[in-house]
Amino acid sequence: MRRAFIKTLVTLAERDERILLLTGDLGYMTLEPFAERFPGRFFNVGVAEQNMVGLATGLAEAGFIPFVYSIAPFACLRPYEFIRNGPIAHRLPVRIVGVGGGFEYGHNGLSHYALEDIGVMRIQPGISVVAPADVEQARSALEKTWGLPGPVYYRIGKDEKTLIPGLGGRFEPGRAQTIGDGTDVLLIATGAITTEAAAAVALLAERGIRSTLMVVASVQPSPVDDIARELAKVKVAVTVEAHYIAGGLGSLVAEVAAAGGISCKVIRLGVAETPGCEVGSQAFLQRRHGIDAAGITERIERAVGSRAGSGNILPERGGIHGS
Prior knowledge:
Helix content is 36%, strand content 20%. By secondary structure, the chain is α/β, with parallel strands linked by helices. Helix 7 (135-145) links the parallel strand 5 (128-130) and strand 6 (152-156).
């Protein structure tokens, strides 16, 4: 997804000389196409993410459209105050690109896990939050949001190959994309973990459970009407995110259900506890926390088999934290 994003950015930069790219000493083997094509518009500010956002804020005030690039927690958590007081407060077109959501940097430990980035960004009303599900959607999302007047946070994954069947790169700000028409359960996913949700859809079909997959790449502006419409069609909805269960997609869906008085049981699958010193591959950590395809499928099978008490909104621990 990273390379597709940068390739698209190069194409856009050829059309608009206001586009700049800044990095916090990261992105080797990824950012070179932009750096080589536009050496005067590429800046490596070093390991200084707060300064990078400050510099980008000034550049945006001067009329440029700067993209700042780093691993997700370094892109949004370390300079969070600078993002809030700079591009958000002043409604400036700074684009924050956070790479590697969830456990994508699993072997690097907790400092590199992005488990709260969507939550901290979406509570700020002045910033758009975009989390594409695959490379094709990353391209279309960038094409449709790069010119927005205010700041944008992009959460992009590292997977350059896997595509979500039926998605076809569709993206619209403030809208969700729906795949399938099953009424036994609604799966709602955001970001690269959508590949696991899509795999769970196939596993559920083998077990005779008909499901619909909703992709929420536009976390903010939120697709409230789309979510409400689909929730009203089912008795059980399951959110899937490589994120803490508080503050992210699950919280968004729960808010929509509560505000709309929708009688649908919402189960939130995500990371329930701080991983601490736990390290390993992305696949290992997703399996441990019950957000791989097998874990999602298992939890949905239990939920669909016991639908009594619809209307409850429940956090799910999954994996080794089984409820």
